[in-house]
Specification:
single chain; 193 residues; alpha/beta; three-stranded antiparallel β-sheet; three-stranded mixed β-sheet; disordered C terminus
């Protein structure tokens, strides 16, 4: 639930911690239960997140061990499940330049890896049935972390773990059964069943 408030809060660490606590309180609630947040806090948080995301590069150089998730497309309870399985991320604010995206084929993947002395491209933003899917002779993997995407697909979600020896493994979030999905579908009056 979004509520109006008339004051604007300057974001600081305590403010961010309060927002995180409010958002994590949904862990103990039924999926779809609204979380009460003031609209000004939501707007401030979105604007800060936008600045951070726009400052990030298209290609991130990250160290192992690491856990990698794909898109959740707004399925907030699945985000909380991923945090429970893989651990909660540390807080961090970095500034970088942002690039753009392109479509590509096997030859482009191979050339990119060769040019940049890399072994694997990890990408997201595409529904794949098993939560992850390899492409280009296992030189690219798509990780998608939203099981039962939009309630229209029977796909699993996945989280990729890269250990300190650079071995990749996947944790699978199985799709909800039809019975579980029916319990979380709005009825004709806009309420929850």
């Amino acid at each position: 639930m979004i509520r109006q408030n008339s004051h604007t809060h300057q974001p600081d660490e305590a403010w961010v911690d309060g927002i995180i606590d409010t958002l994590l309180s949904a862990r103990s609630k039924k999926p779809g239960t609204p979380t009460d947040m003031p609209v000004n806090d939501i707007m401030t948080l979105c604007n800060l997140a936008r600045e951070i995301l726009l400052s990030q590069p298209m290609l991130l150089e990250l160290g192992a061990p690491i856990k990698i998730c794909g898109d959740i497309h707004g399925q907030y309870n699945d985000l909380l499940r991923l945090f429970e399985y893989g651990g909660f991320p540390p807080e961090g604010w970095n500034e970088n330049d942002r690039g753009v995206s392109f479509t590509f084929g096997i030859d482009v993947v191979h050339e990119f890896l060769h040019r940049h002395d890399l072994d694997l491209v990890v990408r997201a933003h595409q529904v794949v049935e098993d939560g992850y899917e390899f492409f280009a002779n296992r030189e690219l993997v798509t990780v998608f972390s939203a099981p039962n995407y939009c309630g229209e697909f029977d796909n699993a979600g996945a989280m990729m773990t890269v250990d300190d020896t650079l071995m990749c493994s996947f944790q699978i979030l199985k799709p909800a059964s039809a019975t579980q999905q029916a319990r979380n579908v709005p009825n004709n009056r806009g309420g929850r069943r």
